[in-house]
Model the fold of this input.
Amino acid sequence: MFNLDMAPADPILGLTDAFRNDPAPGKINLGVGVYKDDNGRTPIMRAVKKAEQRLLDSESTKSYLAISGLPTLPSLTQPLLLGEDSDLPGSGRVVTAQAPGGTGALRVAADFLRKATPDTTVWISTPTWANHTGIFQAAGLATNNYPYYDAARQGLDRDAFLSALDAVPAGDIVVLHACCHNPSGVDPDEATWREVAGIAAARGWLPIFDFAYQGFGAGLAEDRAGIVTVLDTGVPAFICSSYSKNFGLYNERIGAVTFVGETADEAERAFSHIKVAIRSNYSNPPSHGGSIVAAILSEDDLRAEWEDELTVMRDRIFAMRKGLADGLAARGVDRDFDFIKHQKGMFSFAGITPAQVDALRERHHVYAVRSGRINVAGITSAEMDRVCDALADVLAND
Ligand code: LMR
Done:
């Protein structure tokens, strides 16, 4: 019936499949963005285990959730995204629906936007997460790109970024990585966020914040600062947030789609259509991940333990960043990799070519995304020397 060519393997999750099939002992997967502890495990956080134990004892039904998910999740999610002392959650301008992960949140927002504003263009950074373009195009929206990363200076291409945002037509949509830019690890500084905020307000485009790494950059409050700065201007925005990384709940598929309207009335009307988009897609979300997050965010002891665990994770990523940069310097590679220490979040754009990525995989069984993205949060202390040796080898010889 179908005469289809094979679809290409997913650039990130396809790597995980290839890694699983590699029989080499000592193989290292630095492809997919999954945190590992220093023993190479992706453990269930202690706060999560405790919350699950409490749920096991208290859960009394498996009946459907509402289309928008658990009733308590919005009032727990909004202060986390917008600030514990923000006036926005109580203003009626903010609506939140539980979503199956950050990807699900983006797709719900995309389906809503396709209906609400079908002729709009979605602007996406160059480079970006490998799935962004696919999500918006699958919803039927046109996409375009804005410059972001300056590969020569391993930093933000600030002037090009801001001028491109200044030229985005009113009514278009701009996807912004709220923190820990994926794949580059390069975030706008405070002054640049203020510029972005001013441009969004003056030009009238709609920001969509992809907020998948809150707590992995500098801290829960620090990582939302860009969002807060932009929203302080009064512009409407979407926030597509994920609890996959900061709660380690990858396979529970738990995130949220939040819309901040210009007015409470706009938010209420938009929410009714967001619910239509959800109902015609997956009807209503699964409950387990949301129940865990709600328990942790609402019970003081669990919340304190979760925040401590998150700090440990963030500190370990910084230690691995330092180990990688210092390890490469010690091997005398003919480039300065100090920038790796200043990038934020799980990923580093190590400045290696696709041919070097292939050589890393083929000769050393170290897996990275072909764009040159390395998941620094996947390296352990025990593996650090091998990763540095492998990188030094391909940098010198490929
Ligand atoms: C990543 O970028 O590796 C993660 O966000 C996982 C994914 O779904 O691609």
Q: What stands out?
A: Residues 12, 32-33, 129, 131, 182 surround (2S)-2-hydroxybutanedioic acid (CB under 6 Å).
